[in-house]
Amino acid sequence: MEFVGECWPTPHQEMLLNAALFTGERSISHWRQWAKSLELDNVDTASHRLLPLLYRNLTQQGVEHPDMDRYKGVYRRTWYRNQILMHKLQSVVGMLQSRQIDTMLLKGSAMIVGYYADHGVRSMDDCDILVPVQQVHDVSDLVATGEWHTGFPTGASRIGFAH
After folding, report:
1. Which of 83, 66, 88 is CA-nearest to residue 123?
2. Is 93 within 8 Å of 61 (Cβ atoms)?
3. What is the C-alpha to C-alpha distance for residues 118 and 121, in angstroms, rounded to an integer?
4. How far apart are CA 22 and CA 33, in angstroms?
5. Which of 37, 27, 89, 88 is nearest to 58 (CA)?
6. Rg of the Cα atoms in the chain
């Protein structure tokens, strides 16, 4: 059974992932096939989020193509937005750690710091921090005093379900 949509990539997204992650002819042929199959102005949101990773991979392989300037623009915008997010995240993590609250970065911010080593290749719209469950209410109160929020209600009945 094939699952498409939601958390599973569509066939077009699979081509793009292959182009962004593989190297050599395998990458280039997937990219060419993907680029021919759609209009760049009409890519879906999930594919658009992969364009910075595609840009870096194709650049490292020496690919020259008119679309590379557009990929570069998406990469640069992602890099810029992530610089701002990571700077703000650093202040929040610092605040929590100064109060002896253990933290663990999750999802995009953890991937950028631990694996990508490039703030431009992973689109992020938010930052996720794991904290000990017994300190969730304290953290929620602390973070609410700044410009951050939990994104979910933190009532006692919701902690185990939503967070």
Report:
1. 83
2. no
3. 6
4. 14
5. 27
6. 19
Tell me how far apart the alpha carbons of residues 10 and 95 are, in angstroms, rounded to a whole number. Answer: 41
Long-range contacts of 61-65 (CB under 8 A, 24+ apart): 61/23, 61/24, 61/27, 61/28, 63/28, 63/31
d(CA 161, CA 132): 15
**What residues contact residue 106 under an 8 Å CB cut-off, 6+ apart?**
128, 129, 130
Look at residue 105 and give its three-state secondary structure: strand
- CA distances in angstroms from 51 to 11, 31, 32, 64, listed in the order given: 16, 11, 14, 15
Give Dmax (Cα) for the chain: 55
95 vs 18: CA distance, rounded Å: 40
SS3 at position 114: helix
Retrieve residue 12's tokens: 């077009």
Cα separation, 133 vs 9, whole angstroms: 33
The pTM of this model reads 0.82
State the Cα–Cα distance between residues 40 and 16, nearest whole angstrom.
12
Taking only the tens place, the pLDDT of each residue in 5-35 is 568 999 999 999 999 999 999 999 999 999 9
Three-state DSSP class for 88?
Answer: helix
